[in-house]
Amino acid sequence: MDDRGAPYGGPVASRRKPGQTPGSREIAASGPKPIAADDAPLESISRLISETAHDLRAPLSTIREAIRLVRDGDLGKVSSAQSECLSAAINQCNCAVQLVDEMVQSRRFDSGFPNVTRQWISIDDLRSNVEATLQPWILPRGIHLLWDGPFDQGIQIYADATLLRRLIVNVAGNAIRVTREGGPVLIRATVNRDQGIMNWAIVDQGAGISPSDMELIGAGKAPAKSVGGLGLIISRQLAAAHFSTLRIESRVGTGTAVSFQTISGGPSAVAARWVKWRSELIRIEQRKIVNEDQRVHEVRPSRSTQPSQSPAPPRRVRIDVPSQLIELGAGEMQPAFPDHVYLTTVSVGAAIPAAGTDAFDALLQRTMRITELAYRTGRRSWVIAWDADGETGTAKRSELERLVQNELGTMRMTWGASSLVSATPHPEFKNSLASRLSDLMVRQTLAGSQQAVSDADQVRLGSGPMQSTPMATIRLEHDVQWLRDSSRADR
Question: What residues form the membrane-spanning segments (predicted)?
């Protein structure tokens, strides 16, 4: 982090060739040559840092608690100015703790088990959390944090709220670091309703990234000056956790735009996006550096809940679309069984309280590989897409039951029908896996909605009777129409 606590960016971990061990380097036929520090594989750096992360948590917690004792007056009276200063120090300790957590999360991605808990979240809540986190970095320098998108409309996206907030904060922190005092940083969200996704972009007007450094980033090596540190590795992984690449566009002297996508179109969109993302993992190829024309982004002033004495931010921010473009994917992660997916469903008994179902969900998500999906269709039901063949899928079921028994005790689990679905496009129906998965998720979601009405722990003493809602019917009609359109387009 820099002196304000903002996380620095960093390049993606370098790609290893088959048979090459982590941290090893290919030696040219002409003989060994000195290895520059910037050429060291960042995966080894990430592993070294993350292995010390657990040791950093204890001293950071001790420092934060000591500052809190002084701020709260337990060791003597403090002035309001001193209290504000100590509160800022606590915030920076919290940022350091979050960075330590990110180091641990980075190693989880490298191991293939990222422990991601995705659910439908409000983009308005996400915006509030991001603004609160960035306030200590934008206020001292008068940075205008501009938001452009369909906010205040109740729109939800499918994401891990904590990881997505860290992704935006990481990228926006880098943008703030390179922005002049009083300058703007734009966070833009646009909905693509046809694809059921929301495109996010964080745009700055900094110095930009040099072409040579962009090439190094694309090759998985540490750039010399433009970007450095662990932040970009983590951001790439956080984007992958949302079935997206991390797209970096930059033009020297103009600025940089970093973008990614999240899902916004319901269960069918989750199925389609996951299948598409999984397929792209199998066909990893080097992204080309391309040129594009300039654009002007229309933005709205940030409507922060906190009063500000600074002048109103500009209403137009001219951003030249950068001439250099690269996309950073999920690294070396690929499906173990690229040709098929093991689909099944699982539900837990109605007698299990809400806390128990949440504990089961956390355990299930912890066991999922990055190439697998566990979609919660109701309070007590899930659709699972395992990266497995028939034998491995059966073994995964047994292992999950064993873990539940050992960690959660007695819990009745009911498994639905399982099937091994081909991931290879069918000549007559190209998206067979996406269609099968979408159909299963939509049907289970509707069934879960009907079961939720009869849950005893949903109705509290003194609360009003449950009212029927047309939302399930509306969502079903939307998803059925999507399936029809997809079927016509693929024939």
Answer: none
- Tell me which H or E stretch contains 161: helix 161-177
- CATH architecture, domain 340-454: 2-Layer Sandwich (3.30)
65 touches 97 (CB < 8 A): no
pLDDT at residue 482 in the model = 73
Give the tens place of pLDDT for each residue, 220-267.
665 644 444 456 778 888 999 999 999 999 988 889 999 999 999 899
Into which CATH architecture does domain 115-287+321-334 fall?
A: 2-Layer Sandwich (3.30)
> Per-domain residue ranges for the chain?
46-111, 115-287+321-334, 340-454
All residues at 6 or more sequence positions from 55 whose CB lies less than 8 Å from its CB, including other chains:
none
Residue 303's nearest CA partner among 294, 317, 313 is 313
> Across the chain, what does the average pLDDT equal?
76
CA 352 – CA 380 distance, rounded (Å): 9
For residue 157, give the 3-state DSSP assignment: strand
The answer to whether 264 touches 329, Cβ cutoff 8 Å, is no
**Each residue of 93-149: pLDDT tens digit?**
877 776 676 666 666 666 666 788 999 999 999 999 999 889 888 888 899 999 999
Distances (CA, A) of 102 to 88, 134, 289, 350, 379: 21, 17, 29, 36, 29
CB 10 within 8 A of CB 229: yes
* CA-only gyration radius of the chain, Å: 24
Which tokens in the block code for residue 319? 């951003």
481 burial via Cβ count (<10 Å: 0-12, 13-18, 19+): exposed
23-57 b/e with 16+ CB inside 10 Å = b? Answer: eeeeeeeeeeeeeeeeeebbbebbbebbeebeeee
Beta strands at 184-192 and 144-148: parallel, antiparallel or unpaired = parallel
Angstrom distances, CA of residue 399 to CA of 60, 286, 293, 347, 405: 37, 37, 53, 16, 10
Residue 60's pLDDT band (cuts 50, 70, 90) = confident
The two three-digit tokens of residue 478, written as one number: 């939307």
Tell which residue, 385, 370, 304, 360, has the closest CA to residue 335: 370
**pLDDT tens-digit readout, 16-47:** 333 343 333 333 333 333 333 443 454 555 55
Helices 80-111 and 53-71: crossing angle in degrees, nearest 10, is 160
